[in-house]
Automatic annotation (TrEMBL):
One of its GO terms (molecular function) is ATP binding. The keyword ATP-binding applies. Keywords: ATP-binding, Nucleotide-binding, Transport. Pfam families: ABC_tran. This is ATP-binding cassette domain-containing protein. It comes from the Bacteria. The keyword Signal does not apply. Residues 4-257 form the ABC transporter domain.
Length: 328
């Protein structure tokens, strides 16, 4: 039975319409106009207990919105979500007891307290019994080598030490699922490797289901057995990393110079992987759309100044699409 189920889930936001020009701005002060921004559009996936899933995509793709819906912070505009048998936004508190969250940019630690006190605070918050508490503190302190800094206030810890502390806190109540947002961002090679080993170890020892968002391909390669790739609110791929690579290496790349820099392709089978002004690199798979159909779609709908068909370099494409990656 899946532990996470997303069925046709969408999330839209109402945002103020941007106005241009003096009179329009003045008008908008009196009469506010809104437009609908689609953050996530009809996404579906299910995750089995104990899976290690990389949830990846470029900036603004809809990753955080998905994680916020899974953790009950946001209510979907349409569709159904179940996390460990519960509807997260209707059971926010109960849901929180069974999940752990690490948001790279937002700390759950108390800056003036040493970790040892923070653990005790979380013990009370999550009503963890003493036996389990002791066992877990010992387990994480050893696995994350936290002994040397347990008594130091959090504000004095290095970035890597803080991240280890965040992970231990998020996992202290033995959540069945943990959402990790960029857990290795900004860390050096040794610290990154320590965190990756830790995540794999927790998954193996405790069977924790892990959902990881990252822009670091090494995180994906070394931790995740499956990737779900989201772009502009829609799921583009769900499967193993190696199948993803071989699927794309059988694909084609069109390098197109458009007359109009803002050309929107409006065809989901054509994916823009790089955009430099009017020049765009467009990737597609021949199983989905033939070379002829792809070129026809582009030349019929847009004024094109140059168009070349290329063989894709998959490593380079992944780097362009999903971040700083490999070399870092
Ligand atoms: N509260 C909000 N109000 C309006 N628009 C929003 C809101 N939250 C997100 N969005 C929009 O929804 C889209 C998806 O955002 P989201 O934060 O989920 O992307 P992301 O994949 O997590 O990006 P990043 O990697 O940059 O964190 C973006 O276009 C974003 O501007």
């Amino acid at each position: 039975m899946p532990i996470i189920e997303m069925n046709d889930v969408s999330k839209t936001f109402q945002v103020h319409k941007r106005t241009v020009g003096f009179w329009n701005t003045l008008k908008s002060l009196v009469h506010r106009e809104y437009e609908t921004k689609v953050a996530v559009e009809r996404i579906s996936f299910s995750i089995e207990p104990g899976e290690l899933v990389g949830y990846i995509g470029p900036n603004g793709a809809g990753k955080s919105t998905t994680i916020k819906m899974l953790s009950g912070i946001l209510t979907p505009s349409a569709g159904a979500i179940r996390v460990d048998g519960r509807v997260p936004h209707d059971n926010r508190r109960a849901n929180a007891m069974h999940i752990g969250v690490v948001f790279g940019q937002r700390s759950q630690l108390y800056w003036d307290l040493p970790m040892i006190d923070t653990f005790e605070l979380y013990q009370k918050m999550f009503r963890i019994d003493n036996g389990r508490f002791r066992r877990n503190v010992d387990f994480y302190v050893e696995l994350l080598e936290m002994g040397e800094f347990l008594n130091r206030p959090v504000r004095q810890l290095s970035l890597g030490q803080k991240m280890r502390a965040e992970l231990a806190v998020a996992l202290l109540h033995d959540p069945k699922i943990v959402y990790l947002d960029e857990p290795t961002i900004g860390l050096d090679v040794v610290a990154k490797s320590r965190i990756r080993t830790f995540i794999r170890e927790v998954n193996k020892e405790k069977g924790t289901t892990v959902i990881l968002t990252t822009h670091d391909m090494d995180d994906i390669e070394q931790i995740c057995s499956r990737i779900i790739l989201i772009d502009r609110g829609s799921i583009m791929y769900d499967g193993t990393l190696s199948d993803f690579k071989s699927g794309f290496s059988r694909g084609h790349l069109l390098s197109v110079v458009f007359a109009d820099e803002d050309a929107e392709l409006g065809e989901k089978r054509l994916q823009v992987v790089k955009s430099e002004g009017p020049r765009k690199q467009i990737l597609f798979r021949s199983e989905e759309i033939s070379v002829g159909e792809a070129i026809t779609h582009i030349t019929r709908n847009f004024k094109v100044l140059d168009l070349q068909l290329k063989e894709p370099d998959i490593e380079e494409i992944i780097r362009d699409l999903y971040g700083k990656a490999k070399a870092n």
